[in-house]
Amino acid sequence: AQTVTQSQPEMSVQEAETVTLSCTYDTSESDYYLFWYKQPPSRQMILVIRQEAYKQQNATENRFSVNFQKAAKSFSLKISDSQLGDAAMYFCAYRSELFQGGSEKLVFGKGTKLTVNP
Amino acid sequence: GAVVSQHPSRVICKSGTSVKIECRSLDFQATTMFWYRQFPKQSLMLMATSNEGSKATYEQGVEKDKFLINHASLTLSTLTVTSAHPEDSSFYICSAPGLAGGRGDTQYFGPGTRLTVL
User: Fold this and answer.
1) B100 touching A, CB under 8 A?
2) Do B26 and B4 form a contact (C-beta atoms < 8 A)?
3) Average pLDDT for consecutive 10-residue bins of chain B (118 residues)?
């Protein structure tokens, strides 16, 4: 079974600075998807960024980028120019590439609480 | 695109009563939906996979008779908490794999339902 580990329960960053959230995973599959979701105090889960494992290029979405190291099974999230609105819980998630048999379900890490200091 | 709604957003009920939570995919069809439970300051725990036109698949340890799931159409799944007790108080979230934009591999989440059982 796949597992996702977020080793940083809490992180803090100064506004306008850069912060990196760590995520490692364990799988025997070669094709899969990785995601970072953000959960602000409203508790609405918001997709931040996604990465297909077959793509070597790291995904980027505006101020958010990932460092995907497939061999090391590492998927860290970098937030540049941090803003107060970035304060939230961040969850790393894994999804099998398969489209059947319940494999569409996400496996979540325990989350990292990010605080942004003004 | 890929909007998921939940109703109600909050519900308070007396112990022993049943509560129904609806999850709708507003702008896409979802043959599969997922139901999660989240305790304060914890990650999402998958409860079950809801399949349109067939029985739901429950995760180990989740009581099928306690948490009834019905996926009667391609846009609606319901979770009924039967004979609710205070320990069922939690935040319940649904999600669906989005098909909008071809991204069936990405799950989109509803805003969640906070259930309080007195």
Assistant:
1) no
2) yes
3) 90 97 90 92 92 89 95 92 96 83 73 97
Cβ–Cβ contact B42 with A under 8 A: yes
Amino acid occupying residue B24: R
Residue of chain B with shortest Cα separation from A50? B106
Closest Cβ–Cβ partner in A45, A50, A95 for B93: A45
Q: Position B42: which residue type?
A: Q
Place of tokens 């494999």: A103
Does the pLDDT value for residue A75 go beyond 90? yes
Bridge partners for A37 per DSSP: A47, A91
Single out the residue of B86, B84, B45, B89 nearest to residue B68, CA to CA: B84
Q: Are A33 and A54 in contact (CB under 8 A)?
A: no
> Would you state the pLDDT for residue A2?
86
B5 touching chain A per CB within 8 A: no
Residue positions counted in chain B: 118
